[in-house]
Structures are given as C-alpha cells and as structure tokens.
Amino acid sequence: MAGKEELIGRAVIDADFRRRLLADPQGTIEAEGFDVEPELVAQLKALDPAAAEAAAAGLDQAFAERRAAS
User: Would residue 58 be called left, alpha or beta, if left means φ above 0 and alpha means ψ between -120 and 50 degrees?
Assistant: First the structure.
C-alpha cells in the first residue's frame, strides 16, 4: 500500500488527483488505497483548497522556469 510520500508526490504532479484530494481527502485516500495516518487526513481537511491550488500552481511555474533555464 502506498503511503504519505506517494500521496504527496502524486498530489504535486497530478492536478486532477490534487483537486479530488482537496475536495474529499478521506474519500480520495480510501478510493486510491493510500495508507496514511489520521493526522495527515485531518491536515488535508483543514487546508484551504484555493490556497493549496495556488501554491501548487506556483510550484508548476517554478519547475517550468527551471526546465527552460537548463
């Protein structure tokens, strides 16, 4: 079973998964078969989805700029 690192990694690179995870953390984690501690689920539920999406977009932009520069 995949754990916390895999969950976070997928959320970073898969925008659709990230949106589902932020909208319904418990349901998405269960449906996808991740094995994470309840504290992580609680943290995800407490996140502001719009703020999390904006942060992810910033990371996407930073990665794109680094790729373009290399």
Answer: alpha
Closest CA to 41 of 7, 12, 6, 13: 7
Whole-model pTM?
A: 0.78
| Cα gap 57→21, rounded to integer Å | 16
What pLDDT digit, counting tens, does each position of 34-43 carry? Answer: 999 999 999 9
How many domains does the chain contain in total?
Answer: 1
User: Domain range spanning residue 49?
Assistant: 4-69
Radius of gyration of the chain (CA): 13
